[in-house]
Amino acid sequence: MDRIGDKWSMLVLLSLKGGPMRFTQLRSRIGGVTPKVLTQTLRAMEQDGLLTREVFAEVPPRVEYTLTGLGRSLHGPLSVVATWAEQNVAEILRCREKFS
Amino acid sequence: MDRIGDKWSMLVLLSLKGGPMRFTQLRSRIGGVTPKVLTQTLRAMEQDGLLTREVFAEVPPRVEYTLTGLGRSLHGPLSVVATWAEQNVAEILRCREKFS
DNA sequence: CTGTATCCCGTCTGATACTG
DNA sequence: CAGTATCAGACGGGATACAG
To answer: Where is the HTH hxlR-type domain (chains A, B) (predicted)?
Structure first.
């Protein structure tokens, strides 16, 4: 939770589920994230072994981000939580209205 | 994740699994949390419908916190994530060492 | 006992501009 | 294209003291 509970890590994880992606591709897929923050997020996830960063020495430069086995293995557990959230978000919102 | 990904919510959830608890009881069980922050945490969880706060008009005052059905229903999904974390924490730590 | 009131600091996140 | 540099705001969390 400490590692993927931030604002963007989970969206990166979901975006990369379909296969490797490049920096800009990832950025537009997610939407609303600045390059600085996306870089921070990706580097942290790389350090945790959730994804790999591969640089191709080309012109123009190309960098691909790919989920590791560890990263892919997170999808199962997270989807369990996601399912719970989807099933209960309505009740939670209803509950919060009472306090407004 | 937005709601229970903070520093203390999950510990509250786990602590209350065994049944209702009072403020101070909860505080010493968790350990290291100041009254202000614990109050913030509990109020947020109450608003989300994860627990109820019941005040008893006694001397000395008594307040009990109890998990709702919604709160209890979170244990399953979270334990799935917890299991994943326990099984993979070693590999994650090993990975982080490479970058140090 | 169960909190509230203040003050404070570090971190997260973002806007904007710039670079190899 | 894929970032880095810089500045700044908002927020979570903590220390301490006080109150009903």
So the answer is: 1-93
